[in-house]
Backbone:
């Protein structure tokens, strides 16, 4: 049976894609195969099977260490061939996003990256992705024999998936990479999980100084919210990259997103458009964020935040 | 070291408005994307250290006459510019763009390092760099926030989802850059004037021995998402606004659960 | 110092028009524009009278990216709870060669900048000129962002504020009493709605002028122009009057309040504001036109005070384009003679004097003074509406004859010492 092939170097993302891919594959009459690459990859096989993979291609070839794009693309292309795959879903992490197009190019395939929705319509896969910096959603179809989609993490839910046979296949691959990892180190700073947070306070350039972010922290504490930020603040290194919300950061769906000193550029707001409620504090009444907000306070955050924190403490 | 920087011009997104859910680009000026400016600056900085030549390469999308817009790249310090402009490239997909750019790089000839933005401002697919690298059989390093070149190799630092890495690839290689890599300089009037006399070539597909590309994708629709928000602005003193806001949150069931 | 033949300060209509003429003749020109692109910040009400300028660059006006040719002219006098609208329609307003079009500057100026570039001129956006360089009383170049560039001649077309030219002593600093403030919104409406609301044939446009209550007695008026899929709605108010107001109205509130008036509200209903802008307008008339040329320089467009507000017609764009054209002609002549002194450039002023530009301004010499008369914006619009309202009113009382009604109104509002004086002063305009 022809296959829908799933790959991500992140096991959680791969499992989501297997679960989501399984429904798409059913509609397209395909089986679902997963791929795990790199030293230690075999350990992922059972999780991928549990998520619904009929077969799992595993290769622990040393060339896959650190998942260099050239080697991973080459390995995947060979597996696509062997599995007779016509659809490939790759997790659109940074690594996946640089690998998927290289794979597509090898296969003479079309590719859609940063896919935020993927459905079958009239027997065809239609992928949604943000265009014009997030202002619109382009819905695209691929017309090539093999189709590659780099799908954003959290597009599908791995929970409740029905397990597949999970037959482990060890393909014979011929791969190498020209890229050498000279050094790597863990990222510093605290890690947050914005994806799962029910309440988020988003801070932006309205804060004049790094120390002033304490005002945002206090507000978040009073609300019981997690702090996220615009890319600008991460660029200043006031906050870590994993706090970025938006096109190049987290796409969140909290119950409340409260932005403070955020103008509301589309690249940021695509990360919160799924929030149940959006509220904003900004001193400029014309700031684009207000057009997107349910509740707005026009005012100086240096006055509004202390008052708001005070009031919240009394709840 | 000879560097080719792939530079795209696109509508100024700040000026694109949404009307009836569609993006209106009429009368919106085009400019070089921010990340491509970072890539150009990186090339100029590398040239300062290692010598050589920087060529800006642009495929004019949307049948926009990019020859004028690309002069900014020359003013920013590129030595030469090549624009590919052809009526068959009105709305190319990423596979087509990559095929054309790869052919152009071959025609340009000398190229030790190929630089791209991590994504273009309007499409932001991040596909073009990787596809060109594959077409030319080059090693690729994405998301570079530091780039150095020495002894026939390029060394880049990048921040990935899980870790910070330093990677090295032999030249020639393809590298895509992120905005943290540098602060592009804004060219002054003298630089703009000097750019006028720098070589700028415009090629058609035929000059590259290519025909009209076969599309690999079809755009079904491209519309703004519908947002239905309450748009309530609170009035009164700061304390009154804070109070009204907190009351609204309680009513919505977000607080006090 | 790097040299070019001609530097043009300001990429508005005046500057671009000059650049087009010069580049077409192979003169080396560089246009420096402060905005992100030509048209980015340029504010206009929205109507370009093309008839006067069709003869200059005839190939251009055929492709002009206009919105609608104006076929209907409306004047609304707003009284106290009553208003009167006069409609002037003519087959000859639109037709095969329309006399005027509505335009949007972001489109128009970008288009012209592209044409200028095609002719070989350099148009440099994002480039603010900081100083006009002078030596022995002669303008020899400019300084922008730390770079100095020399030129044989500089055409100053920096618009109404004259910051550079007044600093360099080429023109007087603008004074409040010779200026008005313009506020404008572009409000989007579907073209069908526009055509219904203003009773237009498809593609045709209307211009509407409002006087009276909308300016709260201040000198000025409201305007409305229909574009393809939007309307330009705004008002122009005398700067001096605006300053004298003490009721705390912020200038931008005027436009908000204007939009809420019962005469306007239904016209803009359902529209989405796409753009807001404010700008000043020269209103001094010919008495405020500075010296037009000197050693090494020319001034054009609003910088030269070439703008005419004749109450119901506002002109500036056609003057800007015409002055740019004549500036280019003069520079070409000066180049041929190798003389860029005031004498070598003198043909500029002569051409303007012989053309509609200074002739129309001369004809309108008295208008600025006439418009200082506050009754124009308070008494008359109310009186006209009151008179017509009385004629059209039927109530429970026995009705006076039509003539008597009219006569009563005329005598009360139009026949007293003040109005007779006004009528007498009108003879000059
Ligand atoms: C390819 C690309 C990808 C991008 N991806 C992302 C992304 O994923 N996430 C992201 O966030 N951005 C992203 N950006 C950047 C984005 O375009 C904006 O530049 C950024 O979001 C703006 O951040 P900001 O709102 O903090 O700053 P600004 O736009 O500068 O806004 C600051 C706001 O603070 C208000 N303010 C100032 N002082 C006060 C005060 N005292 N009290 C109250 N309000 C005040 C101001 O009125 C203003 O509205 C991306 C850009 C590009 C080109
Ligand atoms: C509200 C309003 C309504 C109007 N309605 C009409 C109408 O309906 N019809 C009509 O014909 N006219 C109208 N006018 C008048 C008309 O808009 C002007 O007369 C015309 O725009 C003048 O053109 P210009 O090129 O001289 O000046 P501008 O269009 O102002 O151009 C000057 C340019 O110079 C640039 N500049 C300024 N300083 C510098 C510097 N230091 N360095 C570099 N660049 C600089 C500016 O950015 C600008 O682009 C109206 C004006 C207003 C404000
Ligand atoms: N039309 C183009 N001309 C030149 N370079 C391009 C073009 N399109 C994309 N690129 C390059 O490829 C990068 C990624 O673009 P994209 O794949 O569209 O996100 C850009 O930052 C550019 O460096």
Residues:
């Amino acid at each position: 049976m022809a296959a829908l092939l799933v790959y991500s170097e992140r096991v959680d993302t791969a499992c989501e894609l297997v679960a989501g891919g399984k429904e798409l594959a059913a509609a397209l009459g395909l089986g679902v195969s997963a791929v795990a690459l790199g030293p230690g990859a075999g350990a992922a096989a059972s999780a991928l099977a549990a998520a619904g993979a009929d077969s799992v291609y595993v290769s622990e070839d040393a060339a896959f260490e650190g998942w260099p794009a050239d080697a991973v693309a080459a390995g995947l292309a060979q597996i696509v061939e062997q599995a007779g795959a016509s659809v490939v879903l790759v997790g659109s992490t940074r690594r996946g996003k640089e690998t998927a197009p290289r794979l597509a190019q090898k296969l003479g395939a079309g590719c859609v990256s940063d896919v935020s929705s993927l459905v079958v319509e009239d027997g065809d896969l239609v992928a949604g992705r943000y265009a014009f910096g997030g202002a619109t959603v382009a819905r695209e179809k691929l017309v090539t024999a093999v189709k590659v989609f780099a799908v954003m993490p959290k597009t599908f839910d791995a929970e409740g998936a029905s397990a597949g046979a999970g037959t482990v296949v060890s393909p014979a691959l011929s791969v190498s990479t020209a890229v050498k990892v000279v050094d790597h180190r863990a990222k510093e700073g605290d890690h947050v999980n914005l994806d799962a947070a029910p309440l988020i306070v988003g801070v932006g350039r309205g804060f004049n100084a790094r120390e002033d972010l304490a005002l945002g922290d206090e507000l978040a504490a009073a609300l019981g919210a997690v702090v996220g930020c615009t890319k600008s603040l991460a660029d200043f290194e006031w906050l870590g990259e994993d706090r970025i919300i938006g096109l190049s950061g987290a796409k969140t769906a909290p119950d409340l997103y409260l932005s403070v000193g955020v103008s509301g550029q589309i690249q940021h707001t695509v990360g919160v458009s799924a929030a149940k409620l959006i509220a904003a504090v900004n001193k400029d009444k014309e700031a684009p964020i207000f057009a997107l907000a349910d509740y707005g306070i026009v005012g100086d955050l240096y006055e509004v935040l202390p008052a708001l924190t005070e009031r919240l403490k009394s709840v | 070291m000879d560097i080719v920087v792939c530079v795209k011009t696109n509508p100024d997104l700040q000026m694109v408005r949404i009307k009836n859910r569609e993006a209106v680009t009429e009368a919106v000026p085009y400019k070089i994307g921010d990340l491509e400016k970072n890539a150009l600056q990186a090339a100029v900085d590398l040239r300062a250290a290692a010598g050589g030549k920087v060529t800006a390469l642009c495929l004019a999308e949307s049948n926009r006459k990019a020859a004028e817009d690309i002069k900014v790249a020359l003013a920013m310090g590129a030595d030469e510019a090549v624009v590919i402009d052809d009526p068959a490239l009105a709305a190319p997909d990423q596979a087509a763009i990559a095929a054309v750019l790869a052919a152009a790089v071959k025609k340009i000839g000398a190229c030790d390092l190929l630089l791209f933005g991590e994504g273009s401002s309007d499409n932001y697919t991040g596909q073009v760099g990787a596809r060109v690298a594959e077409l030319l059989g080059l090693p690729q390093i994405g998301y570079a926030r530091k780039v150095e070149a020495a002894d026939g190799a390029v060394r880049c630092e990048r921040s990935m989802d899980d870790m910070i890495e330093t990677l090295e690839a032999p030249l020639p290689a393809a590298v895509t850059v992120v905005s943290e890599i540098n602060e592009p300089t804004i060219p002054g009037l003298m630089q703009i004037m000097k750019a006028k006399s720098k070589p700028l070539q415009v090629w058609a597909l035929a000059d590259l021995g290519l025909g009209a590309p076969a599309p690999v994708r079809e755009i079904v629709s491209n519309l703004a998402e519908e947002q239905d928000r309450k748009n309530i602005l609170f009035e009164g003193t700061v304390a009154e606004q804070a109070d009204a806001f907190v009351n609204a949150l309680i009513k919505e069931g977000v607080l006090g659960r | 110092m790097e040299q070019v033949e001609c530097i043009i300060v300001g990429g508005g209509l005046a500057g671009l028009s000059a650049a087009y003429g010069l580049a077409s003749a192979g003169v080396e020109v560089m246009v420096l524009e402060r905005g992100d692109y030509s048209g980015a910040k340029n504010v206009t009400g929205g109507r370009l009278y093309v008839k006067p300028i069709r003869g200059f660059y005839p190939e251009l006006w055929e492709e002009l990216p206009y919105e609608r040719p104006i076929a209907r002219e409306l004047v609304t006098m707003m009284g106290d709870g009553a208003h009167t609208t006069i409609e002037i329609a003519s087959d000859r307003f639109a037709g095969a060669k329309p006399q005027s079009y509505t335009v949007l500057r972001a489109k128009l100026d970008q288009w012209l900048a592209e044409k200028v570039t095609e002719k070989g001129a350099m148009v440099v956006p994002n480039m603010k000129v900081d100083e006009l360089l002078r030596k022995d009383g002669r303008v020899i170049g400019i300084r922008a962002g730390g770079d100095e560039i020399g030129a044989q001649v500089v055409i100053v077309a920096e618009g109404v504020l004259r910051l550079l030219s007044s600093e360099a002593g080429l023109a007087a600093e603008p004074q409040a009493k010779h200026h008005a403030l313009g506020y404008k919104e572009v409000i989007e409406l579907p073209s069908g709605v526009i055509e219904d609301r203003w009773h237009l044939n498809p593609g045709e446009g209307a211009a509407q002028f409002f006087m009276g209550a909308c300016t709260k007695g201040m000198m000025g008026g409201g305007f409305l122009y229909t574009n393809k899929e939007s309307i330009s709605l705004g008002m122009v108010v005398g700067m001096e009057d605006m300053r004298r107001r003490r009721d705390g109205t912020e200038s931008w509130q005027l436009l908000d309040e204007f939009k809420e008036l019962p005469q306007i509200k239904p016209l803009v209903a359902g529209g989405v504001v796409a753009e807001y802008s404010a700008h000043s307008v020269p209103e001094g008339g010919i008495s405020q036109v500075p010296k037009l040329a000197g050693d090494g320089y020319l001034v054009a467009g609003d910088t030269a005070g070439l703008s005419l507000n004749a109450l119901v017609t506002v002109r500036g764009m056609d003057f800007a384009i015409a002055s740019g054209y004549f500036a280019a002609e003069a520079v070409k002549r000066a180049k041929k003679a190798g003389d860029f002194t005031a004498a070598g450039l003198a043909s500029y002023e002569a051409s303007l004097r012989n053309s509609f530009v200074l002739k129309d301004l001369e004809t309108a010499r008295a208008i600025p003074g006439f418009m200082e008369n506050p009754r124009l914006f308070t008494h008359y619009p109310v009186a006209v509406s009151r008179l017509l309202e009385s004629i059209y009113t039927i109530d429970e009382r026995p009705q006076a004859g039509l003539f008597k009604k009219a006569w009563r109104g005329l005598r009360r509002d139009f026949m007293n010492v003040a109005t007779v004086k006004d009528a007498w002063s009108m003879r000059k305009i």
